[in-house]
Amino acid sequence: MRAFQISALDGPDALELTERPEPGPSHFLSPGGGVVIDVRAAAVSFPDLLQSRGQYQMKPELPFVPGGEVAGTVVEATEGFSAGERVAAMTVLGGFAERAVAPPMLTFRLPDALDDAAGAALVLNYHTALFALQTRGQLAEGETVLVHGAAGGVGTAALQVAKALGARTIAVVSSDEKERVAREAGADEVVRSDGAWKDEATRLSDGGVDVVLDPVGGDRFTDSLRALREGGRLIVVGFTGGGIPEVRVNRLLLNNIAVVGAGWGAFAMGKPRFLREMGEDLERMIEAGDVRPVVGVRLPFEQAPEALRVLDRREALGKVVIER
Question: Cα–Cα distance between 269 and 231 in angstroms, integer?
Fold first, then answer.
């Protein structure tokens, strides 16, 4: 089979198209084996970019095939799935290939309402958004959520999930095009990251938002704390802005607010029942029409290096996906 592998940690240009043996269900070294998937679409995410430079916490032995999110049809499975079923899955590694293997607990049946590209964009971003907002942020119906990076993969997912949970949403974006994407994803209000977004968000929320979801980090962190009303929660889901901020805890004490970490992967691994319940929640949102993954860039499989470059140049709107 064809697959892109990384043999040197030189960034997106390090991806090279090679021939590799097709994997079987035992390729995934877990007690239950794995689900072999004929990959029709693979999503490209920030961890893939970091892995291409050896900057991610998981550092596979070289050479390795990157790619953690796929959609396609089941070829063979040791449990839970039948050949020919459409699925979306987290493979952890190996997704940039014609066939990949995923653990059963991270494999989900793909509703007919979504095509393969949307399916590839589903698991990581939408499980992260639902976990962050519902499990960690305890979002209640009628509350207001401010979303940073609102035109990206996690941001658009958070906007849709927040709306499905009955919240009002404020998107933070940097351009007219990103505003268009955020509004299509369900933003009720939009503010600009290069302006007085904190003051505008505070005004729009009548004194402060209930929840901030932040996949960006960097220098906007302190203003995110200031944008919260009493009892508000700032949910940290990543640092795509590059800087890992620090918090002066007196702000939390004086304003009765909280900073909450939301590491979906660290929490969910080893909890198959929890993952299944989240999958069922998202399936209901899909059936209701509330969740439709935003695929901003579709490239042919052969252009996987360019897909990583799109992320590197911060040009992504929604999810970047390679298709066969």
Answer: 30
Main-chain dihedrals φ then ψ at residue 168, nearest 5 degrees: -95, 145
The per-type count for the chain, helices as H runs and strands as E runs, is 11, 15
In 3-state terms, the chain is what percent helix, strand and coil (to 5)? 35, 25, 40
Q: How far apart are the first and last CA of the chain?
A: 13
**Beta strand 168-173 pairing with 144-147:** parallel
Q: Domains in the chain, start-ordered, CATH in brackets?
A: 2-122+293-323 (3.90.180.10), 125-266 (3.40.50.720)
Q: Express each pLDDT in 197-244 by its tens digit.
A: 999 999 999 999 999 999 887 788 889 999 999 999 999 998 766 678
Q: Three-state SS for 226?
A: helix
Task: Pick the closest to residue 215 from 289, 131, 117, 140 (CA basis).
Answer: 131
Angstrom distance (rounded) from CA 175 to CA 278: 33
Closest CA to 123 of 67, 57, 183, 49: 67
Query: Residues with Cβ < 8 Å from 91, sequence gap 6 or more?
Result: 37, 67, 68, 69, 70, 100, 101, 102, 106
